[in-house]
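User: Good morning. I'm curious how zinc ion would be positioned relative to this chain. Could you predict the structure with it bound?
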Amino acid sequence: MFRSLKELSDQNEYIRKTAELLDLLISTQQRTIELTEENIQLKKSVESSRTEIESLKKAKEEFAMYDLIDVGDANSKVYQHRETEHQACPKCFEDGKIKTLQRSRFYLICKACNTHYNLVQGSVR
Ligand SMILES: [Zn+2]
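Assistant: Good morning! Here's the predicted structure, ligand included:
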């Protein structure tokens, strides 16, 4: 039994269209996987930014607890904590680090950057 040319043509068209749809389905699935991976990366990035913002907020609050005070001559300004009254190195402070100064008889010394700040007796407790 022979199929008519019209039937064969319709069947070929059907097969061709089915193959096109399968290609489209596969590429859509691949794109979905790519977008899912991209979404995971973006969520990680947002989470890491949130953590960074939180730590910057905490650091900002911590830095706000210090006042710049005179402890000796013009070059001897240091940061002093409002509550605990310990002194912190202004040089390190500008670099975003709070480094407590060690006290000797005539100086306050930063062990982190080795800066000495002249100390007038009685200027700090
Ligand atoms: Zn320092």
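The chain has a mean pLDDT of 92. The pocket of zinc ion is lined by residues 89, 91-92, 99, 110, 112-113, 115 (CB under 6 Å).
Let me know if you'd like a different ligand tried.
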